[in-house]
Amino acid sequence: MKDLNNKVAVVTGAGSGIGRALALALAKRGCRLAVSDVNKSGLADTVKALKGSEVKSYHLDVSDRDAIYAHAEAVRKDFGEVNLVINNAGVALSATVREMTDDDFKWVMDIDFWGVAHGTRAFLPHLIASGDGHVVNISSVFGLIGVPKQSAYNAAKFAVRGFTESLRQEMQLENQPVSVSCVHPGGIRTNIANAARMGKSENADAQRKGFDKLAMTTPEKAAEIIVKGILKDESRILVGPDAWGIDAINRLLGSAYQPLVTRFSRKNLYV
């Protein structure tokens, strides 16, 4: 996919943050947009910001498998085809393995992993039929390394990475007209930390302030990096200098990165 003009692009979690920024960046390149979010108000604001572009919005809870498959059919019917799917919707949880509840664990996995997996599978036949398709799944730097108090989020994002990398190879081996990219953002200045669930013993204010300090990249910059990665057909798209640093440490040290993260966490997460 060397040109995005007139391509039909699907973006989940488009009501704020990276999702909204992606919708705006794709619109500038001439995409026809199918945007969705569980937050109706945020989604409406995104549509307003897209004034002048061809856009249709959909209320969608990506934790609902049947709703995702129905959404895929609706988009195909509304636009005639689908070329690009960005499974971006996500949530966060800060809690230790001992402290997190089953409900919170399931909440994260249903949205951050199953939302991506079902979103990919639901749209894949339409992407293949288009003759020029691309799947973009949003993982995280926490899909590259494990971090204390992020076990559920780590589990989901590592799963997204494995699922997406496997799919890319399958599409190549089957000579299918679909490219696949996995995105690993570092700290992005979005509302995800403020909307995160916290374990009972967590100091929510301290955790969120800590995240804000580490958020190095704006959603707009993240979107530009992702779009450029799509056009270059990159298999792994790293977003932000912290993402590049974490990827390098992981490659150089392997599992030996863990003592570094432990020391960092003792100072910044266990407060």
TrEMBL record:
Name of the molecule in the record: SDR family oxidoreductase
Coiled-coil regions, chain positions: none
Gene3D superfamilies: NAD(P)-binding Rossmann-like Domain (3.40.50.720)
Signal peptide: none
InterPro entries (UniProt xref): KR_dom, NAD(P)-bd_dom_sf, Sc_DH/Rdtase_CS, SDR_fam
Residues covered by the Ketoreductase domain: 7-191
Keywords per UniProt: Oxidoreductase
CDD domains: SDR_c
SMART domains: PKS_KR
GO molecular function: oxidoreductase activity, acting on the CH-OH group of donors, NAD or NADP as acceptor
Family: Belongs to the short-chain dehydrogenases/reductases (SDR) family.
